[in-house]
Batch of 2 targets.
Target 1
Amino acid sequence: MRVIFHIDMDAYFATCHKAINSQIRSKPVVVVHKNVSSAIITAVCYEARKYKIKVGMSLYHAKNLCPNLIVETAIHSLYVNFSVKIFELLSQKYTSKIVIASIDEFFLDVTTIIGRNRSVKYLAQKIQQDIWNKFQISNSIGISYNPFLAKTATDLKKPMGISIITPQNLSKTINTLPIAKICSVGKVSQEKLKQINIYTVDDFLNFENQKLLIRTLGKNNFNSLILKLTGKSGDQLIYTNNFVKSISKETSDIVNPLEFNELINVIHHLTNDIYLKMKNRRLKTKGISIMFRTEQKKITRQATLDNYSNNYQELLALAINLFNKNWEGDKAIQILGVSFYHLEYEYNTFEQLTIDNYQKNKIISQTDQLINQINKKYKKNVLYKGIDFLESKPLNSIDIQDKFILFKK
Ligand SMILES: [Mg+2]
């Protein structure tokens, strides 16, 4: 039987700020994009949750609930840097069978390590402590025999929790959970389920509800959820070490499919996700495409860059621009996707210095040249510079929205 770990950082963005500032570690902390009282909170640490502060609440409201609240402004590069470092720790010290699920979540297949090592729980404690000791990032680990159940297990106990779902305790553990807590049920489906009075996993598995559920969710969705909830889904993990030609992500979880701001936000999240996967693999892209499906048709549009890029700002702006130019505005979007499709390792993308591009690039330092020669020789990224971790801060979604809403009108 496989042993899958799902490692999820606790209140990640807030925790990153605590990691670099020990003075706020035990304090209630929230993160916003801009420190103004109308700002919407994007992350809440566990101390602040005790005051009933939630993601999505206005800062004004939160400060009323907790006058001593510590407010941090989002620093995207900080979150990416910790994520890359945690990935490197896990992949170098524990297993190369690792998948990046999002900026603060990883799946590890530890089946073979367990075989020749100690107990499952011991290994989880060791990894959890290791991340804490090295980065002061608190994290929780879910353990099970497939990725879906491992992810479900993580949410059972947070922060600094370790939970295990086995075939023996599966139904006892998850049947009373609210269906909304189950990880692959999106907002749209949650709403539909609420309307037909399906609240818990038990309700979902009740045979009497089967026909209604199939009518509401569609047969395919229903079947795949049933397999998952009964521990029979065989989700494969696709490992990051293999060279990939493209990285893409799409979603159908769009609550207001005609709302421009929301669609832009969805693009922001999708781009952020695939950007991170690209960055963690030390790749750059030369092509970006956007796909959306309305009831009438599916549209795919792509753009090619002059040079390979891993500049988040540039890629996000391109994605938004492609969407903005091609969506007619009155057709509801059912599925939206972004992909980077022309990828190459960073060390293979350095331009040769010529008279023509000399002015543009000014100078590629001797260090850069040396690093690239070495990486090229070993055909993998054995070396990179510390400064790669100190990139400029990418535009956040609110900045982007402001710009493009003006542009749209
Ligand atoms: Mg998390």
Target 2
Amino acid sequence: MAKYLIFQPLKFRHLTVKNRIFRSSVTGRWDNYNGSGTQARVNWENKFAKGGVGAIISSYVPISIEGRITPNVVTIDCDERIPFWHTVGEAVHRYDCKYILQLSHSGRQRDIEGIENTLTRTHGIEPNPAPSSTDEADQISGLPAVKIPTSKVKEIVQDFAKAAGRAKEAGLDGIELHSSHGYLINQFLSSAINRRKDEYGGELKNRYRFLHEIVREIRKVVGDSFHLQAKISVREFNNIIPPWQRSGNTFEEAIQICQWLEEDGVDAVHVSRGSTFPHPLLPSGPFPIKMFRYTFDTMTSSGGKASFRNLILFRYRFLWPIFQLFWRRLPRKLGDRYQQPVQGLEIQDEWLDEFFKEHVSTEEFKQLLDKHQGTVLRDAKEIKQNLKEIPVITTGGFQQASYINAALEGGYTDAVSMARTLIANNDLVNKFQAGMDIAERPCTYCNDCLGAYLELPLGCYSLDRFYQRSIKNLTDEEQDKAMQEAAKARTEEVMTVFDPPPKPYMPPM
Ligand SMILES: Cc1cc2nc3c(=O)[nH]c(=O)nc-3n(C[C@H](O)[C@H](O)[C@H](O)COP(=O)(O)O)c2cc1C
Ligand code: SF4
């Protein structure tokens, strides 16, 4: 397997990564409420470095408190965070793994605002609308937004630049701008969301201006040789829930954005899709309604006009088809037209774990792979062909060595990023290195990890992957016992992120 392209180093302008696999960003809520980092965060990142990935792209890291999606995620909003990020970097560098910090601002897509982002009224506290390019609330939860004045836009540009400077000072290897998935930069880029009439709205050049200024100001702070990449939703599909919404930027506009980024001195483009997060097409797979039934209540205080409606929809089983009807509309429409651009090796029955196959058969798993692996590859290839020299990283469903290799050899992308598939198997790259084509208990794209994020420690929650024994020929009662054992194994695995624990220390008197 080592002869595979996967294991050839990837050279960016100023950074070399030992192989072609990046851990994509996955937000977990393990940190302190005030945005300081915890040992659990270090443990989490360490798992993937140890597991063999060439580089880790951090989870969503807010450049300011107003720009976070939720409390309990570590920020980069002040100099006090630098030592923590230095520790994270040092931990992963021990495995010759690079660390790229994802600089992020939520804009209106703020899941839980936290006390700092509230307003106090005589009748109590309520969320302060988040800065955006529009006054319109987001379309999934109806989270409140305010179209910000130019002075505020300039302030946020500077917040990005200062955050980039901190990442460099922490000794990290680069930064990624979270300019995709409907967060603030995407809210400016998108023709479907941006409602401004000034120099930051209207034609594409104006909608790009915010990102252009961020890149320019970052370069002033970190210089030309610090690695800088941008994650872009090259297809927005913004008309996801209400079909009457505008669809967003055209693919030609996305190409133009990537070309401008290259001209502006960005070192790589990370290709993704979707003008909201989550989106029916990313992460691909079902909407994790069973998990949200349990976790979504945490969002009902966020002032989203539709949060309470959603809670009711998720809480009562008989209402699920209503939500699913809208959520599945787009994948259904596009699914018929989707054909894999490349092929990996045929999955062999003996590659998969015996207990896993009792829940997801080899045939079912082949179909899942076919449907979810490499869904953004075709777009990535076109983006790559329209750039001069900077590499392209592509996200979306990758978990099979031979498939990834075919994508690299076919010139579809220069590297792949993996999120859920590495949550399921943190050491997947080491497995590839040992000659395996796929994990014995692979990711099933069920999206339960996504549903869990709001309230539970991030990890794999697919019960199918945790059965400890066969359930064949068991009575109902015995089957239930086997299920409880699987659930226990799942919890134990999720909780490994807290090991080793932090060391308490005595505060000064
Ligand atoms: C639980 C979860 C959290 C995520 N958090 C982020 C994030 O903070 N920033 C980001 O750019 N993408 C985020 N994503 C998207 C992933 O980085 C990735 O682009 C997407 O899941 C597709 O890759 P996959 O099929 O390998 O999961 C998240 C995905 C999941 C499942
Ligand atoms: S819960 Fe596990 S199997 Fe399901 S998508 Fe997440 S990582 Fe994959």
